[in-house]
Specification:
Helix content: 25-40%
CATH class of the largest domain: Alpha Beta
Order of helices and strands: EEEHEEEHHHEHEHEEHHEEEEEEEEEEH
CATH architecture of the largest domain: 3-Layer(aba) Sandwich
Oligomer: single chain
Bound molecules: adenosine-5'-diphosphate, magnesium ion
Shape: elongated
Strand content: 25-35%
Length: 383
């Protein structure tokens, strides 16, 4: 069977700005694929090209094997659900859901049966006569979903459909969305900037950065085996440390960080020892122990910051060469260091991965900084 959606080297420019560069990916029929990336990376642009709401400057789009690049939106077998729901304010829930079917000139009996089924599916049988302004945000979003699903599109495009909902409702809608997709077997392309949402829902995730798809894979794989510094910091909130590769035996490498040896995984083929590398280290994978002058043989550092986040404490440690890293540890009385305390820093080899530095600037750092700022804010509130 051909892929449900396939894009081939799509390019989209707005003036001199390249919103999408060489975007190629495939989605299998029935798959839940998420486009994940920070604001402005090109997610909506990519979705609009697939829907036919915009035309690419280069590249092709195929739906179920058919080239649709030159077809207008209304002839493409896809439906789009936008963040803003876009319900018709003068139609009640029932008529909103029936809208597409009426336009397709389905028989009244078919329309009635299909709308009833959709109302039941999204749990809004009791709200069918209500108008959008009489519905909560979550209910409106369910009407929008039901309206899109009623026409049984083979492909549903969802652009941050849950972004406007409060966290609890959002979690419930995530579960409902996933089970709806499972029941109906519809192909979903779901857009979000929220890594947790992407990890929870997706069969596969395509990570976008500056208009490029930088890595595609199942959630566990992206989390465990990030290929670029950006993916490592965006998906795993990894620490990014500069070091030098010392030696390598197949996938196991020894790196030098701040003059000390540490282990890391190295998956890229052809990479050789002796070169500068970026190592992504998971905060949950970092171990800290009190160090004194005599046991401090490995990597050591000094505590510079302590943040309480839920059940964890996030300790920021400055290494002798000035680089800092964060360790997330469970609360324990034996791990209550003062600011300035000397600690031994270590990790299991699987907690550290050598990644490709990003071509463009230090946005990864600013993303990590922004997250740290946010955590700092939360930490202050808790203290
Ligand atoms: N109609 C437009 N005109 C000019 N620039 C645009 C337009 N649409 C999007 N862009 C720019 O293209 C980039 C990608 O935008 P978008 O696809 O909306 O990002 P995302 O959905 O990932 O937040 C952004 O820099 C944005 O400012
Ligand atoms: Mg967008």
């Amino acid at each position: 069977m051909p892929p449900a959606v396939e894009t081939l080297a799509l390019v989209k420019r707005f003036g001199s700005h390249i919103a999408l560069a060489d975007a190629s990916f495939q989605v299998e029929a029935g798959e839940f694929l998420t486009l994940l990336g920070p604001s402005g990376c090109g997610k909506t642009t990519l979705l609009r090209l697939i829907a036919g709401l915009d035309r690419p400057d280069a590249g092709r789009i195929r739906l179920a094997g058919q080239d649709v690049t030159d077809q207008p939106a209304y002839r493409r077998p896809v439906h789009t659900v936008f963040q803003s729901y876009a319900l018709f304010p003068h139609l009640n829930a029932y008529d909103n859901i029936a809208f597409g079917l009426t336009r397709q000139r389905r028989s009244p009996a078919v329309i009635r049966q299909r709308v009833e089924a959709m109302l039941a599916l999204v749990g809004l049988e009791g709200e069918r006569w209500r108008y959008p302004h009489e519905l909560s945000g979550g209910q409106q979003q369910r009407v929008a979903l039901a309206r899109a699903l009623a026409c049984e599109p083979p492909v549903l495009l969802l652009d941050e459909p849950l972004a406007a909902l409060d966290p609890r409702l959002r979690q419930r809608m995530q579960r409902e969305l996933k089970s709806l997709q499972h029941q109906l077997g519809t192909t979903f392309i779901f857009v979000t900037h929220d890594q947790t949402e992407a990890l929870t829902l997706s069969d596969r995730i395509a990570v976008l950065h500056n208009g490029r798809i930088v890595q595609t894979g199942p959630p566990q794989k992206l989390h465990a085996e990030p290929e670029t510094a950006f993916v490592a910091s965006f998906i795993g909130n990894c620490n990014l440390l500069k070091g030098e590769a010392r030696s390598r035996q197949s996938e196991m490498a020894t790196v030098v960080i701040a003059g000390r040896l540490a282990p890391a995984l190295w998956r890229q083929d052809g990479a050789a020892a002796g070169q500068p590398v970026v190592i992504a280290v998971r905060p949950e994978g970092v171990q800290l122990e009190s160090a004194s002058g005599d046991n401090a043989s490995g990597l050591t550092g000094r505590i510079v910051e302590r943040l309480y986040v839920g059940a964890d404490t996030r300790w920021t440690v400055r290494l002798p060469d000035g680089q800092t890293l964060v360790a997330a540890l469970r609360h324990e009385p034996s791990r209550a260091w003062e600011i300035g305390a000397l600690v031994q820093v270590s990790w299991q080899p699987a907690a550290a991965v050598i990644v490709t530095p990003d071509e463009v600037g230090d946005e990864t750092e600013s993303a990590a900084d922004a997250e740290r700022e946010e955590l700092l804010g939360q930490g202050r509130q808790l203290e």
